[in-house]
From TrEMBL:
<protein>
    <recommendedName>
        <fullName>Carbonic anhydrase</fullName>
        <ecNumber>4.2.1.1</ecNumber>
    </recommendedName>
</protein>
<comment type="function">
    <text>Reversible hydration of carbon dioxide.</text>
</comment>
<keyword id="KW-0456">Lyase</keyword>
<keyword id="KW-0479">Metal-binding</keyword>
<keyword id="KW-0732">Signal</keyword>
<dbReference type="InterPro" id="IPR018338">
    <property type="entry name" value="Carbonic_anhydrase_a-class_CS"/>
</dbReference>
<keyword id="KW-0862">Zinc</keyword>
<dbReference type="InterPro" id="IPR036398">
    <property type="entry name" value="CA_dom_sf"/>
</dbReference>
<dbReference type="GO" id="GO:0004089">
    <property type="term" value="F:carbonate dehydratase activity"/>
</dbReference>
<dbReference type="InterPro" id="IPR023561">
    <property type="entry name" value="Carbonic_anhydrase_a-class"/>
</dbReference>
<feature type="signal peptide">
    <location>
        <begin position="1"/>
        <end position="23"/>
    </location>
</feature>
<comment type="similarity">
    <text>Belongs to the alpha-carbonic anhydrase family.</text>
</comment>
<dbReference type="InterPro" id="IPR041891">
    <property type="entry name" value="Alpha_CA_prokaryot-like"/>
</dbReference>
<feature type="domain" description="Alpha-carbonic anhydrase">
    <location>
        <begin position="29"/>
        <end position="253"/>
    </location>
</feature>
<dbReference type="Pfam" id="PF00194">
    <property type="entry name" value="Carb_anhydrase"/>
</dbReference>
<dbReference type="InterPro" id="IPR001148">
    <property type="entry name" value="CA_dom"/>
</dbReference>
Length: 253
């Protein structure tokens, strides 16, 4: 745990800079999923975290699509797997090599990392899942698109087994990862239907303007694999946020 004086120094450092584009920065003050630094307190922990309390299109949400549109498949080119795995105290995160892209409305986003939440943060029509994977994609102008995939109990997923076997202890140095058998596409459902809406980062600073793409169909993981993740994190999900007035489109057949 950080000492109190260091935490204060970090708060001061964070408030003197513009809101960072991504949740994880060296200057962010301590936050958590429980107690005095838990989600209901995030907005008070730093001026940079204000959006967590005052934002109007926050994530996650319970997805109830308001309209449907013909399926236009996501322009997704994910090929390269993780280069290292970080256990940052909030989640298990796999940093990937450059070259995985998502093109949305003519803009190209590059996959920076993917990470896990348990239970799922977003719900689909009132249903929560045991886990949710977030693929964080960033465009050259700094805008973000998060591709989310739900995980339900079922067949084992070899990618997850490989990742969780190599995950270091919380706070330890990132573990290098090179596994020729790892296939990033195995973390995506075969079915291409998805929901799209605007939201925010689900972790401080809760920055809005994030394009959310949530795959309608889940992938599976075995009970053993879900338990393996629970050894790192029992729960690391932000509670549901208001979705009132939000345009949610289902892209399906
Ligand atoms: Zn996330």
């Amino acid at each position: 745990m950080r000492s109190a004086p260091l935490c204060l120094a970090l708060v001061l450092a964070a408030s003197s800079v513009a809101a960072p584009a991504l949740a994880e920065t060296k200057t962010a003050p301590h936050w958590s999923y429980d107690g005095k630094t838990g989600p209901e307190h995030w907005s008070t922990l730093s001026d940079a975290f204000k959006a967590c309390g005052s934002g109007t299109s926050q994530s996650p949400i319970d997805i109830h699509p308001g309209k449907a549109a013909p399926l236009s498949k996501l322009d997704l080119h994910y090929t390269f797997g993780p280069k290292d795995i970080v256990n940052n105290g909030h989640t298990v995160q796999a940093d990937v090599a450059d070259g995985n892209t998502l093109t949305l409305d003519g803009k190209t986003y590059t996959l920076a990392q993917f990470h896990f939440h348990t239970p799922s943060e977003n719900h689909i029509k009132g249903v929560a899942f045991p886990m949710e994977v977030h693929f964080v994609n960033k465009a050259a102008d700094g805008s973000l698109a998060v591709l989310a995939v739900m995980v339900k109990r079922g067949k084992a997923n070899p990618d997850l087994a490989a990742l969780f076997a190599k995950t270091p202890k919380a706070g330890a140095a990132p573990a290098a990862f090179s596994d020729a058998a790892f296939d990033i596409t195995k973390l995506l459902p075969a079915d291409g239907k998805y929901y799209r809406f605007s939201g925010s980062l689900t972790t401080p600073p809760c920055t809005e303007g994030v394009s959310w793409l949530v795959m309608e169909k889940p992938i599976t993981a075995s009970e053993k694999q879900i338990s393996a993740f629970h050894k790192f994190y029992k729960h690391n999900n932000r509670p549901l946020q208001q979705s009132t007035g939000r345009d949610i489109t289902a892209f399906e057949d």
